[in-house]
Amino acid sequence: MEFRYLGNSGFKISEITYGNWLTHGSQVENDTAKACVSAALDAGITTFDTADVYANTAAETVLGEALKGQRRQSLEIFTKVFGPTGPKGHNDLGLSRKHIMESIDGSLSRLQTDYVDLYQAHRFDYETPLEETFQAFADIVRQGKALYIGVSEWTADQLRAGHALAKEHKIQLISNQPQYSALWRVIEAEVVPTSKELGISQVVWSPIAQGVLTGKYRPGAELPAGSRATDEKGGANMIKRFMNDDVLGRVQKLAPIAEELGLSLAQLAVAWVLQNENVATAIIGASRPEQVHENVKAAGVTIPAELLARIDEALGDIIERDPAKTLESSPKTREG
C-alpha cells in the first residue's frame, strides 16, 4: 500500500480507502461486512470512510464493531454529517450547530472511538449560515473529537468560502469528497484547480462508476444477478445514468488497455483516478472480501500518458465534464 498526504497537512492516508456506503447495515450481512474490513486491513488499507446517514447510522455501528481491537493510532477513520438520521425530524439533518454537535457524539459512540480523524460536511447546507457551521466544526476540533475537517461535493466557490472561515477559526479544511471516475470528471475544470490553490485534496468516491467500469455490464445483455443495477434499495437508481448501450459499449473498449497494464478493468478504473495529483485516495466498497483484494492492486500503479490518451479516445463524448453537475449535488432546501 502507498500513502499520500491529505491536503496541505502532515496527515497521511492510504491511497485506497475502504468505504461502506450502500453496503454495511443494508445490502451486506454484518459477518460479511466484517470480513471485508478484515480483508482491507490485511491488504494494508488504514483509512476507512463512512457517514451517519448510511443505513440510518447502522453503517457506522458495523464499522465500529469491525475495527474493534485494532490499534486506533494506526487507523484513519472518516465520517460525515448532513443527511437525515434517526426519526428524521426537523433538526435531524443539515449543518446547524445543533445537528453537528449532536451528530458527532452519536458517530463517536457508534464507531467506538474518542475521535475521528476527518469530520466531513456531507453536502453544502443552503439553510444554515456558513459561519455557524464552521464555528461548530472549530469547537469539535478544539474538543478533540475531530482532528481535521473536510467537505463533500462542494463547488469551487463553496470551497473557497469554507476555507476562508476555517482559516479564520484556525482549523484545517483539508479535503473534499466528490464523485470522480473516468466517466464522471465534473471536478476537473473548477474544483480541482481551486483545491490545489487552497491546499485541499480530493477523497474520491465511485471510482468504478458504481460498477460500470468493471465491464460486467454489456450492451444488450441481461443484468448480472445480484449486481448493483438490480438492487432496488438504492443501487439501481445510482447506476442508471450509465446504463445505456453507448456507455457500456465504450467501456468494453478499455479492456485491451487494462490488459496491457496487467490489470482488470476495475483495477484500471481505480488506478486512473489516482493519476490525478490532487486525488489523495480512492474509496472502494465491497460486498465480498475478494473484491477488496482485487481492487487494492490498483495502488502504486502508474499509467503512461499514451495509455491515458487512449482511455480518453475510447470513452470519447460520453464523459461527463459539466462543472455545474457539482452544484446539483446539494439540495437547495433540507426537504429537497
Short description:
By secondary structure, the protein is α/β, with parallel strands linked by helices. Helices cover 37% and strands 13% of the residues.
The rough form would be described as: globular
CATH architecture label name? Alpha-Beta Barrel
Radius of gyration: 19 Å
**Overall pLDDT confidence:** 92
Low-confidence stretches: none
CATH topology: TIM Barrel
**How many domain regions?**
1
Q: Strand-residue fraction?
A: 5-15%
Folded structure, characterized:
The protein is of the alpha/beta class and 336 residues long. The protein has one domain: NADP-dependent oxidoreductase domain (TIM Barrel). The chain has 13 helices and ten strands. The chain has helices spanning 30-42, 58-67, 97-111, 130-142, 156-168, 191-198, 235-239, 245-252, 255-261, 265-273, 289-295, 305-315, 324-327, and strands at residues 3-5, 12-14, 16-19, 47-49, 76-81, 116-121, 146-151, 173-176, 201-204, 279-284. The strands form two sheets. It has an eight-stranded parallel beta barrel, surrounded by four helices. Strand 7, helix 5 and strand 8 form a beta-alpha-beta unit. Helix 1 (30-42) packs across helix 2 (58-67), helix 4 (130-142) crosses helix 5 (156-168) and helix 5 (156-168) packs parallel to helix 6. The protein is globular. The model has no long low-confidence stretch (mean pLDDT 92). It comes from Galbitalea soli.
